[in-house]
Write a structure and sequence with these properties.
Blueprint: E1 4-10, E2 13-18, H1 25-36, E3 41-47, E4 52-57, H2 59-62, H3 65-78, H4 84-94
Antiparallel strand pairs: 1-2, 2-4, 3-4
Helix pairs in contact: 1-3, 3-4
Protein backbone atom coordinates (compact mmCIF):
# COMPACT_ATOMS: atom_id res chain seq x y z
CA UNK A 1 0.00 0.00 0.00
CA UNK A 2 1.54 3.32 -1.06
CA UNK A 3 2.82 5.32 1.89
CA UNK A 4 2.38 2.43 4.36
CA UNK A 5 4.64 -0.51 5.15
CA UNK A 6 4.23 -3.28 7.70
CA UNK A 7 7.41 -3.34 9.76
CA UNK A 8 6.28 -6.11 12.11
CA UNK A 9 3.08 -8.06 12.57
CA UNK A 10 2.47 -10.52 15.35
CA UNK A 11 -0.67 -11.53 17.21
CA UNK A 12 -1.82 -8.49 19.17
CA UNK A 13 0.67 -6.01 17.74
CA UNK A 14 1.16 -4.26 14.43
CA UNK A 15 4.01 -1.89 13.55
CA UNK A 16 3.60 0.34 10.52
CA UNK A 17 5.90 2.81 8.81
CA UNK A 18 3.70 5.65 7.53
CA UNK A 19 5.32 8.19 5.22
CA UNK A 20 2.88 10.99 6.12
CA UNK A 21 3.76 10.72 9.83
CA UNK A 22 7.50 11.16 9.32
CA UNK A 23 8.61 14.50 10.70
CA UNK A 24 5.05 15.44 11.68
CA UNK A 25 4.70 15.22 15.49
CA UNK A 26 1.35 17.05 15.56
CA UNK A 27 -0.27 14.61 13.13
CA UNK A 28 1.38 11.65 14.84
CA UNK A 29 0.11 12.73 18.26
CA UNK A 30 -3.43 13.35 17.00
CA UNK A 31 -3.54 9.95 15.27
CA UNK A 32 -2.21 8.27 18.40
CA UNK A 33 -4.98 9.82 20.52
CA UNK A 34 -7.74 8.89 18.06
CA UNK A 35 -6.57 5.29 17.69
CA UNK A 36 -6.19 4.84 21.46
CA UNK A 37 -9.88 5.68 21.88
CA UNK A 38 -11.03 2.76 19.70
CA UNK A 39 -12.38 -0.29 21.54
CA UNK A 40 -9.93 -3.15 21.21
CA UNK A 41 -6.82 -1.00 20.87
CA UNK A 42 -4.84 -1.37 24.04
CA UNK A 43 -1.84 0.86 23.42
CA UNK A 44 -0.52 3.11 20.67
CA UNK A 45 3.01 4.40 20.41
CA UNK A 46 4.55 6.53 17.71
CA UNK A 47 7.89 7.86 16.55
CA UNK A 48 7.42 10.91 14.34
CA UNK A 49 11.12 10.94 13.51
CA UNK A 50 10.79 7.58 11.81
CA UNK A 51 7.11 7.78 10.89
CA UNK A 52 6.50 4.67 12.97
CA UNK A 53 3.12 3.67 14.41
CA UNK A 54 2.89 0.70 16.78
CA UNK A 55 -0.54 -0.56 17.82
CA UNK A 56 -1.16 -3.20 20.49
CA UNK A 57 -4.66 -4.63 20.24
CA UNK A 58 -7.08 -7.32 21.33
CA UNK A 59 -8.17 -8.93 18.07
CA UNK A 60 -11.41 -10.30 19.53
CA UNK A 61 -12.54 -6.74 20.31
CA UNK A 62 -10.92 -4.90 17.42
CA UNK A 63 -12.65 -7.04 14.81
CA UNK A 64 -16.13 -6.10 16.02
CA UNK A 65 -18.16 -4.12 13.49
CA UNK A 66 -18.13 -0.99 15.65
CA UNK A 67 -14.36 -1.05 16.15
CA UNK A 68 -13.64 -1.74 12.50
CA UNK A 69 -15.92 1.12 11.49
CA UNK A 70 -14.13 3.45 13.95
CA UNK A 71 -10.74 2.30 12.67
CA UNK A 72 -11.79 2.91 9.06
CA UNK A 73 -13.18 6.36 9.93
CA UNK A 74 -10.00 7.32 11.76
CA UNK A 75 -7.71 6.30 8.92
CA UNK A 76 -10.00 8.01 6.39
CA UNK A 77 -9.87 11.26 8.39
CA UNK A 78 -6.09 11.22 8.69
CA UNK A 79 -5.28 9.81 5.26
CA UNK A 80 -8.02 11.03 2.87
CA UNK A 81 -5.71 10.50 -0.10
CA UNK A 82 -5.79 6.73 0.48
CA UNK A 83 -8.69 4.56 -0.71
CA UNK A 84 -10.26 3.62 2.62
CA UNK A 85 -11.60 0.29 1.39
CA UNK A 86 -8.16 -0.79 0.12
CA UNK A 87 -6.60 0.40 3.38
CA UNK A 88 -9.17 -1.46 5.48
CA UNK A 89 -8.62 -4.67 3.49
CA UNK A 90 -4.85 -4.29 3.72
CA UNK A 91 -5.00 -3.65 7.48
CA UNK A 92 -7.37 -6.57 8.09
CA UNK A 93 -4.93 -8.90 6.33
CA UNK A 94 -2.15 -7.65 8.62
CA UNK A 95 -4.07 -8.09 11.91
Amino acid sequence: MDGFAVMDSRPGQLSLAVDKLKGNPALTGALQAELAAIRGIQQVSTDPGLGLLVVAYDKSQLTSFTSLLALKATFTAFFPEVDSMKLALWLSQSL
